[in-house]
């Protein structure tokens, strides 16, 4: 029993070291992936062979933002479904909240003269209008974060309030930003760097190691309890 116990202790240590290593490398690859993305993102190319390419290109050019970033945001937000509506109330292709819509529209007057009152679902679900407002908003955020597209994407997803305090991408916004980045590489057919490939791989390894360690800890508890019981028996009998 004591041998198994020692074996488990060694296993837990090895697993912890492996996890820390995988986690460290994963974070490193994630940083490099974002850094490379930031370096290549302003391709100036026009989007082709994707839904709503005309609207995407028109407003991306107008707002001086990469067409494929807009396309990747649309894919992440709504999978190109113009009628998408989230539980929080974000609507349309680019999943825009009514408040945001109102603010941006007040500046760029995209929807002026369409209806007598405030914008409603008929506006939100109009693909061309939605892309216009969403792209203008995204561009506004990119400027606000001095051209840091990753931060702008995190702010687009979580609201600028979540980003302003830390000037860093919060943990729960990281997945969104990385998803958009992966879609961007996919849509542009730009080759994903080894950092991107390893980032994905290490993310899975991290998860697997976490489970393996949990199982080992469970076994460790069982063995320890058994040992304590048999030890007591030996002492008192
Ligand atoms: Zn409207």
Description:
Helix 1 packs antiparallel against helix 10 and helix 3 crosses helix 9. 72% of the residues lie in helices and 0% in strands. The chain has 237 residues and is an all-alpha fold. The two termini are 19 Å apart. It is elongated and about 90 Å long. The chain is built from ten helices and no strands. The structure holds zinc ion.
Please write out the topology:
Elements: H1 2-40, H2 53-62, H3 67-78, H4 98-108, H5 121-124, H6 127-144, H7 149-158, H8 160-164, H9 171-188, H10 194-236
Bound molecules: zinc ion (ZN).
Zinc ion is lined by residues 111, 114-115, 119, 123.
Q: Please report which band the strand proportion falls in: under 5%, 5-15%, 15-25%, 25-35%, 35-45% or over 45%.
A: under 5%
Series of H and E elements: HHHHHHHHHH
The averaged pLDDT comes out at: 91
Amino- and carboxy-terminal Cα gap: 19 Å
What assembly state would you assign to the polypeptide chains in this entry?
single chain
């Amino acid at each position: 029993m004591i041998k198994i116990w020692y074996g488990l202790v060694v296993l837990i240590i090895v697993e912890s070291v492996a996890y820390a290593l995988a986690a460290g490398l994963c974070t490193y690859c994630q940083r490099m992936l974002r850094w490379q993305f930031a370096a290549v993102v302003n391709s100036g190319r026009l989007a082709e062979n994707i839904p709503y390419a005309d609207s995407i290109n028109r407003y991306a050019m107008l707002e001086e933002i990469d067409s494929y970033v807009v396309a990747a945001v649309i894919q992440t937000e709504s999978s190109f479904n113009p009628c998408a509506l989230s539980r929080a109330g974000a609507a349309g292709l680019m999943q825009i909240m009514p408040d945001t819509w109102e603010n941006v529209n007040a500046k760029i007057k995209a929807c002026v003269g369409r209806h007598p009152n405030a914008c409603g679902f008929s506006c939100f679900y109009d693909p061309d209008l939605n892309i216009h407002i969403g792209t203008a908003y995204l561009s506004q955020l990119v400027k606000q974060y001095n051209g840091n597209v990753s931060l702008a994407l995190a702010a687009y997803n979580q609201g600028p309030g979540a980003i302003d305090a830390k000037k860093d991408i919060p943990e729960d916004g990281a997945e969104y930003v990385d998803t958009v980045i992966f879609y961007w590489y996919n849509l542009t057919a730009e080759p994903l760097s080894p950092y991107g490939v390893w980032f994905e791989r290490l993310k899975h390894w991290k998860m697997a190691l976490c489970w393996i360690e949990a199982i080992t800890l469970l076994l460790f508890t069982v063995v320890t309890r058994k040992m304590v019981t048999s030890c007591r028996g030996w002492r008192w009998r």
